[in-house]
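Exercise 3.2. Students should predict the tertiary structure of the chain below and write it as structure tokens, then compare their answer with the key that follows.

Predict this chain's 3D structure.
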Amino acid sequence: MHKTTTLLLSLFFITLLGCDQKKTTQTPTEATKETSDKIKVLNVATFHFGYTSDANKVDFDEDDRKIQEEIRTLSKMLAEFKPTIICIENHPQYDAEINRVYQEYLKDPSQLNTNYGERSMVAFDVARLNNLAQLYGIDSYMDYNYLIGEQIVNTIDSTTYRDYMNNPFKDSPELAELDKNFENLTLLEKLRFYNHPKVLDFNININADNLLYVGTQDGFEGADEATKFYQRNLRIYSNLNRIPMTKDDRVFILMGAAHASFLRELLERSPKFEMVNTLDYLK
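Answer key:
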């Protein structure tokens, strides 16, 4: 009896391994086409167009005619997802305000609205192309000190912290080269870079996890600051879940790269949502 049970268990695990191998060989496009009852989500990481208080900024002239043409092209690509719900990096309490601006934009969409950065330049146009009446803010702002590692005597592991800060892409030479020449990339190339899986991992590391190597002798200064950033993103995810949805909805999320990176982690494990491959919509 014991031998029979062992044999059956062995066959079961072999079958599981076979299934896993099939999953790992699946192409991104095939993964995107998977069918389930879960709500489909297109989660796009971006830098902020125009002014931002973020520490990491990208030089971006939102009034440049060539850039605006690139934005129009980008919006058409993202609109192919055919979202029924669009979520942006805006606090929910300001939904009425930004939706009033969106309604004004619909009266004359020939001129991009640059006042809200990517929220109005991209999200407005994707919403317009899909005949949507409104957008949803899901942000939840919380301040945290991302510079704590530079401000205290670090006695936990300053070597790992400093090595990563100085060379985060040392194991990915191709990404390191793209990062080095980032300013010379087209808008589409920049967003492909931002949505590369390893760059999404980088955003979690640089904003939170690398702080876990930071602290004084008996302190947890780095961990405490990282906790605040995790908390902010968990709140953002909770705000997403406040929006009434059905399995027939399709959700387009446009957020700063750090938030999109955290959302990716939560969405991948969600019993409610199924992410499509973002890079399929940035070709």
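Discussion points: The chain is about 50% helix and 10% strand. The radius of gyration is 21 Å.
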